[in-house]
Amino acid sequence: MSRNDRRKTHRRPAGWVAKYSADGLPGEWSRCEVVDISEGGAGLILSGPSVEKDTRLTLEVHLNNGDPAGNQVQGTVRHVSMSPDGTMHIGVEFAPHDAALVVVMITNELATVLNAV
């Protein structure tokens, strides 16, 4: 069974710039890209320090308005892989209490795109 088949919710392409801070690296924020996202999790490409499976992290997403306030979600790394060029790709499962915030973030971003069309 593929990883996509095990997901509870469908992931949507994102392409958002974000920052992450992993447990064990207090106060250290590093850049990442949110490749895809759903209410339950996200796929990220990291530009900073590597993380291991089961690491807790905070993800801070910067959407079109550039304001990160209220755009932080907590999650746990569930999948880690390295591409041939050394780029780290991770899958993060969001904490259940952050699902509503993620839905709002997705909805707001889609509304911005649709309004621009």
Task: Please describe what this structure looks like.
19% of the residues lie in helices and 43% in strands. By secondary structure, the chain is of the alpha+beta class. Strand 1 and strand 2 form a beta hairpin. The protein is built from two helices and six strands, in the order H-E-E-E-E-E-E-H. It has one domain: Thrombin, subunit H (Beta Barrel), CATH 2.40.10. The termini are far apart.
Task: Give the second-level CATH assignment, the architecture.
Answer: Beta Barrel
- Count of DSSP-assigned helices: 2
CATH class: Mainly Beta
Query: Gap between N and C termini, in Å?
Result: 38 Å
Uncertain runs? none
Task: Let me know the number of strands.
Answer: 6
The helix content is 10-25%
**Describe the biggest sheet?**
6 strands, antiparallel, barrel
Strand-pairing-aware structural class: alpha+beta
CATH topology: Thrombin, subunit H
Q: What is the overall pLDDT average?
A: 81
| Overall shape | globular
Portion in strands: 35-45%
The CATH homology group name: predicted glycosyltransferase like domains
